[in-house]
Specification:
Elements (H helix, E strand, L loop, with lengths): L7 H20 L4 H8 L3 H8 L7 H11 L3 H7 L8 H12 L5 H19 L10
Helix pairs in contact: 2-3
Length: about 130
């Protein structure tokens, strides 16, 4: 089989995020160091994000969006935090991600619970007795 594709799903999303960030940084004519300084992260950390080795937090994505003058929502989608297929779901996810009163762990927990409710409601026949 060669390469295991099982855990590539998340990594390809992160890689596409990194590629997109690098593309935007180069278009803005910013060096890695300049962007890292504007965002408030270390140069090596930003380099790891661009290479797909690290997944940034929602706050770092917001700072990157501001510095690069791109949509934070676009970065959330590319990072796999928000799913582009549902406008309603996206607005809930964006509200959770934008809430400064929550920790990263709390945000991720809320998003996980929300996703599980959506999945449950998309397959009510598997859960008899549940009110619709």
């Amino acid at each position: 089989m060669g390469k295991d594709k099982s855990d590539k799903g998340g990594k390809s999303v992160v890689n596409s995020l990194g590629d997109y960030l690098k593309e935007q940084r180069l278009a803005a004519r910013l060096s890695l160091r300049q962007l890292a300084d504007q965002v408030g992260v270390s140069n090596p950390y930003l380099s790891q994000i661009e290479r797909g080795l690290r997944k940034p937090s929602a706050e770092v994505l917001q700072q990157l969006a501001r510095a690069l003058r791109v949509s934070a929502e676009q970065l959330y989608v590319r990072a796999g935090m928000v799913h582009p297929d549902s406008d309603q779901a996206g607005s809930v996810e964006l509200a959770v991600l934008a809430d400064a009163g929550l920790t990263e762990r709390q945000k991720q927990s809320l998003l996980d619970v929300y996703a599980s409710f959506l999945a449950l409601n998309n397959h009510p026949e598997q859960h008899p007795g549940q009110p619709e």
